[in-house]
Fold this sequence. Notes:
By secondary structure, the chain is an alpha/beta fold. The chain contains ten helices and ten strands. The strands form two sheets. Strands 6-7-8-3-9-10 form a six-stranded mixed beta sheet, with helices on both faces. Strand 9 and strand 10 form a beta hairpin.
Amino acid sequence: MPATWLEVKNLSAGYGPTRVIENISFTVAAGSRLAVLGRNGMGKTSLFATMAGQTRRFGGEIIFGGHDISTETSASRALKGLGYVPQTRDIFPTLTVEENLFVGLKSRPKDAISEAYDMFPRLKERRKNLGSQLSGGEQQMLSTARSILGQPTILLLDEPLEGLAPVICEELMVAFSRLAHSGEMTILLVEQRIQSALDFAEEVIVLERGRIAWQGKPKALAEDHATVERLLGVGGLH
């Protein structure tokens, strides 16, 4: 299936009575790559959780390939092709790697699981291990692979590199780039490793206190040292 375009219009959402994101609007073209940046606590995870249907929406729309999914359940959004890899990974710790992957197949044939092993050979080596026996990096690979097996046309990746060794980060970013260039997925990425995010993305938005404070091309942000320091809390990028 080809990648799907996404539009967020004046989206406000949060938890209980508390608003975390306010009047956020952006569009992501089909097959493109968007990085969502910002310091901790600025609403990045809440934005992704809202798109996945896991927060309280106060207003605005989420348009998935021309269809308004704002009021649909998380399950319905997933069936339409929205894949979400949360920061918490959320694998099944008492199931094996292979059993975790079977969950992601939905109605696809079981031999499609080979796609996950092609992308992450390390998972094939660990296929009989329980989820609880995996390292953090392997759990991230498993969570990502399980989502991808469902053939999403839009994929949300929330801080996939958090706490991982550099060699694992590199392996994951190679896999994400391969997916992005396949033309079958639109990818939105939240990441604290700013340079990795800028190298990956075609467009960037930066959140501050639940609103978009900057929007543009990665190169423009990387060259705007004052904005990088003000919004991201780092003095420069390398």
